[in-house]
């Protein structure tokens, strides 16, 4: 998957994802006598189930080694403990382990863990309820890179713990995230805990339901580049929630808030309770440049001219650069939430072009 971008002096943003259908649908899942049942037509039955013991193969791979798993269907899940490069092209795992995810990183040794070509559909593993996720990451100071992944129809997308570490997501699609109707858990597409860095590049985060954020991060530094964060028409919360504040950079990307979004604000900085942030206080440093930003938010009023708010701040801002963005906001556009008293100023010289319609911005049909 490659993402191509063109934002310069208010030119439209263009995106192309090879091999990934741009349309989306919700999982046809429901409960029958307490068990989650999904449409059997969605099940993958094209290939026989593989009998290789995946966990045994991982366990005998030396620390820092490379393992390529044979393509096929596996009624198994997998846990990674040590540094490894894991190649998973054509591998489909259909079992949740530890009641958490089909693929878990529980890092106990320092060094990089690289996961290539991971694919998971939660409808095949019943990972469509509670906080079950496509990938769960934990371990003190973990170092995980996810390349060319496709995760879909899980209750949560990618989830980390709070012990520090680094997560990088490259060239991936994580979409249609959310539990079956009636589930109470929030369905965040990417949820980084109290870690050091979160980096997202050339990646699509698309369609969260159940009032989850598209991107929720408590990381000290969060960077998004050449990516698409799109609510589509899902009932999600914010597009980006930097829960504990810190550094945020979003460049050359597309951000779209659904008409059914549960919050009027697009990006929140440091609005979570201090006890969820280890009672630490961070400077807010923000760079938002070269993006296309689409406000379809109508909020709870369901009115075409509802407030459409760019920032929601909890604390002071020590550094702010918002420039060269195309913004489409048919409602009353506000740079910051009116209930916050943070002094920010976006100069006109920053070349942010604000339009009332997609057509006026040259984005008709997008």
Name given to the CATH architecture: 3 Solenoid
- N-to-C CA distance: 19 Å
Q: Largest sheet at a glance?
A: 10 strands, parallel
Overall, the morphology is globular
Tell me, rounded to a whole number, the average pLDDT. 85
Residue share in helix? under 10%
CATH topology-level name: Pectate Lyase C-like
Write down the Rg: 20 Å
Look at the structure and give the CATH class. Mainly Beta
| Total domain modules | 1
The total beta strand count reads 33
Helix/strand-derived class? Answer: mainly beta
Low-pLDDT runs of 5+ residues are 1-9, 11-32, 34-46
What is the spatial order of strands in the main beta sheet? 3-6-9-12-15-18-21-24-27-30
Helical segment count: 1
Write a structural description.
- This protein has 366 residues and is an all-beta fold.
- It has a single domain, classed as Pectate Lyase C-like.
- The protein contains 1 helix and 33 strands.
- It has one helix at 54-60; strands spanning 29-32, 35-38, 65-68, 72-74, 78-80, 84-87, 91-93, 101-106, 113-116, 119-121, 133-138, 142-147, 150-152, 156-160, 165-170, 173-177, 190-192, 197-201, 204-208, 215-217, 221-225, 228-230, 240-242, 247-251, 254-257, 265-269, 284-289, 292-295, 307-313, 317-323, 326-328, 332-336, 353-355.
- The chain has a 10-stranded parallel beta sheet, with no helix packed on it. The protein has a 10-stranded parallel beta sheet with strand order 5-8-11-14-17-20-23-26-29-32.
- Strand 1 (29-32) and strand 2 form a beta hairpin.
- It is globular.
- The protein starts with 28 loop residues before the first strand and ends in an 11-residue tail after the last strand.
């Amino acid at each position: 998957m490659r993402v191509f971008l063109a934002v310069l002096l208010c030119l439209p943003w263009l995106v192309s994802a090879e091999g990934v259908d741009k349309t989306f649908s919700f999982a046809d899942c429901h409960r029958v006598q307490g068990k989650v049942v999904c449409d059997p037509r969605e099940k993958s039955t094209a290939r026989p189930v593989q009998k290789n013991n995946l966990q045994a193969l991982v366990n005998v791979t030396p620390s820092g080694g490379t393992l390529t798993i044979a393509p096929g269907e596996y009624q198994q899940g997998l846990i990674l403990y040590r540094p490894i490069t894991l190649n998973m092209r054509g591998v489909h795992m259909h079992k949740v382990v530890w009641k958490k995810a089909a693929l878990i990183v529980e890092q106990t040794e320092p060094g990089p863990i690289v996961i290539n070509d991971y694919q998971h559909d939660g409808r095949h593993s019943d990972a469509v309820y509670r906080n079950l996720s496509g990938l769960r990451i934990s371990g003190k100071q973990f170092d995980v890179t996810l390349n060319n992944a496709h995760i879909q129809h899980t209750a949560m997308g990618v989830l980390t713990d709070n012990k520090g570490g680094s997560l990088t997501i490259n060239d991936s699609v994580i979409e249609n995230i959310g539990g079956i109707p009636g589930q109470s858990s929030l369905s965040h597409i990417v949820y980084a805990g109290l870690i050091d860095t979160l980096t997202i590049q050339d990646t699509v985060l698309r369609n969260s339901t159940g009032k989850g954020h598209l991107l929720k991060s408590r990381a000290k530094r969060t960077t998004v580049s050449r990516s698409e964060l799109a609510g589509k028409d899902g009932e999600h919360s914010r597009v980006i929630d930097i829960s504990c504040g810190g550094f945020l950079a979003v460049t050359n990307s597309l951000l779209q808030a659904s008409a059914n979004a549960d919050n009027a604000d697009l990006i929140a900085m440091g609005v979570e309770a201090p006890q969820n942030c280890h009672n630490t206080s961070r400077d807010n440093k923000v760079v938002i440049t070269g993006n296309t930003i689409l406000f379809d938010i109508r909020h709870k009023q369901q009115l075409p001219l509802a407030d459409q708010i760019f920032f929601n701040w909890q604390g002071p801002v020590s550094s702010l650069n918002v420039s060269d963005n195309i913004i489409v906001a048919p409602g009353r556009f506000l740079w910051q939430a009116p209930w916050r008293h943070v002094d920010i100023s976006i100069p006109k010289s920053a070349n942010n072009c604000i339009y009332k319609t997609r057509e006026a911005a040259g984005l008709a049909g997008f």
